[in-house]
Amino acid sequence: xxxxxxxxxxxxxxxxxxxxxxxxxxxxxxxxxxxxxxxxxxxxxxxxxxxxxxxxxxxxxxxxxxxxxxxxxxxxxxxxxxxxxxxxxxxxxxxxxxxxxxxxxxxxxxxxxxxxxxxxxxxxxxxxxxxxxxxxxxxxxxxxxxxxxxxxxxxxxxxxxxxxxxxxxxxxxxxxxxxxxxxxxxxxxxxxxxxxxxxxxxxxxxxxxxxxxxxxxxxxxxxxxxxxxxxxxxxxxxxxxxxxxxxxxxxxxxxxxxxxxxxxxxxxxxxxxxxxxxxxxxxxxxxxxxxxxxxxxxxxxxxxxxxxxxxxxxxxxxxxxxxxxxxxxxxxxxxxxxxxxxxxxxxxxxxxxxxxxxxxxxxxxxxxxxxxxxxx
Length: 376
Hints:
10% strand; 61% helix
């Protein structure tokens, strides 16, 4: 039987609720074993009743939200104690495939970073490794090095194919590479960050404050926790206007581990006139997690007063948690423009002024052809 778009939407909402309950009512979030056991029992019972096709849809959605491994680990741990070994066994093959993909990607990523550093292109891994033990769908890098030297590393050392640049890619000073043997695209931001390449001060701060972390047996340069949140803010609050579960898990984990220095976070966000967006993302993440059983996280008063929205203003639509375009997203864009203009950054203002036209072209292109390729 073919699933209608309405049925898929209903299923997606239920699947997201299931994943959220497992992720946010676990002992690492709530601090109590009883809370996780009760929630896990209900969700494992639900998962056990899914057909193979429905379970595949569930896992596809988990993959889109970059939480497959984390969801799998919770199920693997809880299933034997609660008498649901069958669902654990049904998930095993999918989890093994995902872990194999991740190991292959890490091996390539390690080699890429080493070659770029050796070529005089300092490189920081952004976004992709924030989801560990999961991994993003692309491998995202930022480098302050020379573009030609960077491209040469990919084409000569890895026989990479350079993907065509969209209008947005050209503005952002961003290149994508497809490497034989690597399933993920490698996306490289060079010297600038932001949808139109407007973020120079923040990009410099990100590179300056990067630190080496051990991930999967390899050493990678990654942004400091505060810059990770600002990068997520740029991506979620100023470009896509939707949030994945991985973003919420990542942010609440940093907050619960007391990894965030809020004064440094504000400095970092203010360097790109992004503080209202960062504050809003923090509030939405904490509100959403609390809705699904996590203990409330106390945010500083300055964060709460600067946020332009909260979890009550978001909704699940088209498989993600959506942020209203009006007035929230429009207000954040306006404040960013005013902030960048107030410090005399004419270049940044001019580039940001192109964003509405770019977004409109992408929307029209998508409506006409079903794709925004070449624009966004």
